[in-house]
Write the structure tokens for this entry.
Amino acid sequence: MQKLTVRQIRVIFQRNNLDRYFCLELIRLLELYKEMFKINTELRRVRFLAQAVHETLINRHGKVVPRENLNYTPAGLMRISRFFRTHEALARKYGRTQIHKANIKAIANLMYADRNRSKKYKLGNIWAGDGYAFRGMFMLQSTGRTNVMKDINHIKKMTGINLLDETRRPYPKAVNSYTVYIIGGMAHWHRTGMYKLRSTNAITNRLNKGLPKSMKRERLATALRVKKYLMG
């Protein structure tokens, strides 16, 4: 399995201005941890990167935004969230409009609070502020106290890196770094057994089972594009 190049990473993410340091760090960590986190075949690498493409937010300057920022319009909130689809007034109140900015903290605390989610989709966010504190982080956007804590514990188990402060919440500076962002995504991939799955659709469902069908089709198309580019 050949080492990737900066140009290849930029093609995969479809951003010619993607931060060179991010590209180099991704290449380095894919090589360093490929065996540990089971991204050790061409097909596994393709499938990991295909999910990362859709979970990675890149600003107009090519910088990767390491935390989910939820800067959605009301329509966008209703598209991605069951809660806001049934609470249109709140989507309009907190979503980004021409009149006001998105209230990202309120959006996260409403959308991700366990009290606003069915039993099947609970995230372990039982305390005030958990929705925002444990909003999407790492390269595959682990979300919720339960998922994030499992990933953080897995990172410590596999690499020895501790990401928790004295209050048992993630160090903000640490989880905002490219290095931890990428390692966290790899740890989630490994911990949840995505490397064992035999299709992109199965991986997508394990990563985000509530995703609309149209968005699942987009991920399949990306996986096919990346596979063709890297494997021919």
In short: The beta strands are 57-58, 64-65.
